[in-house]
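Journal club prep — side note

Before the paper discussion, L.F. wants everyone to see what a predicted structure for a comparable chain looks like in token form. Sequence:
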Amino acid sequence: MISRKSLYSHLERLALRTWPAETAESSGSWLLRASGGVTKRANSVWTADGSELWEETEENLRRIHLAEAFYAERGLASRFHLSDASPDGLDEWLEERGYLKEVPCDLMTAQTADTVRLTASCTPAARGLTAVVEPEPTSAWMDAFLELEGYSPEVRPFYDGLYRRIEPAKAFLRLMDGERCAAAGCAVAEEDWAGFIGVVVHPAFRGKGIGRRLIHELACWSLEEGAEQLYLQVIADNVPAMKLYTGAGFSRLFGYHYRTAASGM
């Protein structure tokens, strides 16, 4: 039977492939990621390799120094992605070195069939929307995603490259109210799992059951792709998102956060 840490690491590896950085360099079983500073996930050291214990060995200290040099060369703060799949003790060791904890998040999972069933009923407002599903991030999808997130045009090259770099099967979904996009999201299917990313509802359409319809459509696509289980990552204190996901059958499996070097380190 697969251990919890092995399962966590497996899901972390799948999630890693849903958010491919512009630059990625291996450092043993870790991955150094950089993308011009856009998003913490794409600009941090991935350490969720399933290792049991962190020890202050010469080799491990060399990896830390290589990581710090990697980010210094790019004018970025040194940052580590830490989860329950990371070596035990690494989080505390970084804290002792002055690394600051940032953005606690949860990885949540669900059975795809359960999510399809739990989200099948829609409000009239949600039912009236048209679902548009595409295999690549078209200009129309990117326009909608950036608008709904409220992102500036400067980050478009990053997100356009990010979504195009995803290698597994993927679906880019828009829920349209005529010519207006009410919600958007992406699903990535691989190894009996599908991960949801970029899930966002237009502020004017929130509280109307649109998010539930969005999750339903993504789950239906996932089921067609053979994904029997779902996962997603969400900021732990995002109460509306947590309410949406738990209502769709998701529950917390494990947590992760970042440790970022304090300025001047």
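L.F.'s comment for the group: The chain has nine helices and eleven strands. Keep this in mind when we get to the figures.
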